Amino acid sequence: MSKIRNIVILTGAGISAESGLATFRGPGGLWEGHRVEDVCTPEALAHDPELVHGFYDARRAALATAAPNAAHVALARLDAEWPGDLLIVTQNVDDLHERAGATRVLHMHGELRSALCALCGVRTEWSDDLPPGEPCPNCDAPALRPDIVFFGEMPYQMERIEQALADADLFVSIGTSGAVYPAAGFVQGARAYGADTLELNLEASAGSAYFAATRLGPASKLVPEWVDAMLA
Ligand code: BV8
C-alpha cells in the first residue's frame, strides 16, 4: 500500500444506483425506455430536440430526490484525506460526488446541472427544465443544450485524464459496465503505464479481464471497505 501515491478512480452509473438513479443497461435501465441513438446523439438532438431535452429534464428532476450513498461519502473522505494525487473521473452526469463533498472530480460525459450554449460555448448552471431554444445568458442565441457528451462527441478533458492515467500508481473502476469508450479503455492505458488496477462492481463487466483484481458486490459496501483499507 505504501508504494501507492497517485490514484485515478473511474465511476459509472453503478455507484449512483443505490441512490435511486437508474443505470443504463440492465433491467429497468435508462436505455430500456429509449434507444440510445434516439436520445444520446447529436442527430437525435437535431431531429427531435423535445425528446432529448425531455429525457435530460426528467433525469435532472430525479436528482432533486436523490442523495449521495455510502460509496460517494467514502470517496469524498478519501479525496479529503489522501496525501497524494487523486482524481475521480466520472462518466456520471449527476452531482452526487460533489454533494458528498468530493472536490477532485472530472465529469468526462458532462453534467445534468449545466447548460451549454451550442453557439458561444459558454456553460450556465441549470437546475430546472431546459426547453429547446432557450436563450443563452451570454450571447442570447436560442442555442442552449444539455451539457452532455453524446455518442460521437469527444469526452471532456481527455488530455487531463490521459496525464492522470500516465501518473497513476493505482486505477480503480467502480460501477461501470465497461461498455463505452474511451472510458472502457482506461484500465488498459493505466496498466501499460505500470499502475495497479482494481475493479469494484456488482457483477463482472466487459473489462474485468483487464483488472489485476475484481471484487463483486454493491458499491455501498465495497467502496467504504476499500477506502478504510487505503486510509488505515
Ligand atoms: C468518442 C451521456 C470520439 C451522459 C453517454 C472504440 C471502440 C468501440 C466504440 C467506440 C470506440 N471509440 C468511440 C466509440 C463509439 C462510442 C462507444 O463507445 N460506443 C459503444 C456503445 C460501443 N463512444 C463515443 O461515442 C464517445 N465519444 O469516443 O468520441 C471522437 C473522436 C474525435 C472527435 C470526436 C469524437 C462518447 C461516449 C459518451 C456517450 N455518452 N451518455 C448520460 O446520458 O448520462 S454514454 C453512457 O454510458 C453514460 O455516459 C454512462 O456513463 C456510460 C457508461 O455506462 P455505465 O456508467 O457503465 O452504466 P451501465 O448501466 O452501462 O453499467 C452500470 C454498471 O454498474 C453495471 O456493470 C452494473 O453491474 C453495475 N452496478 C449496478 N448497480 C451497482 C453496480 N455496481 C456497484 N454497486 C451497485 N449497486
From TrEMBL:
Output a single Gene Ontology CC term carried by this record: cytoplasm
Q: Which UniProt keywords are present, listed alphabetically?
A: Cytoplasm, Metal-binding, NAD, Transferase, Zinc
Question: Where on this chain does substrate bind?
Answer: Y56, R59
Cellular localisation? Cytoplasm
Enzyme kind, highest EC tier: transferase
Record: residues binding NAD(+):
12-31, 91-94, 175-177, 201-203, 219
Catalytic positions are: H109 (proton acceptor)
What Enzyme Commission number(s) does the record list for this chain? 2.3.1.286
Q: Where is the Deacetylase sirtuin-type domain?
A: 1-232
Q: Which family does it belong to?
A: Belongs to the sirtuin family. Class III subfamily.
What is said about the domains?
2 residues (Tyr-56 and Arg-59) present in a large hydrophobic pocket are probably involved in substrate specificity. They are important for desuccinylation activity, but dispensable for deacetylation activity.
The protein's job, in short, is: NAD-dependent lysine deacetylase and desuccinylase that specifically removes acetyl and succinyl groups on target proteins. Modulates the activities of several proteins which are inactive in their acylated form.
Name of the molecule in the record:
NAD-dependent protein deacylase
Gene from which this protein is expressed: cobB
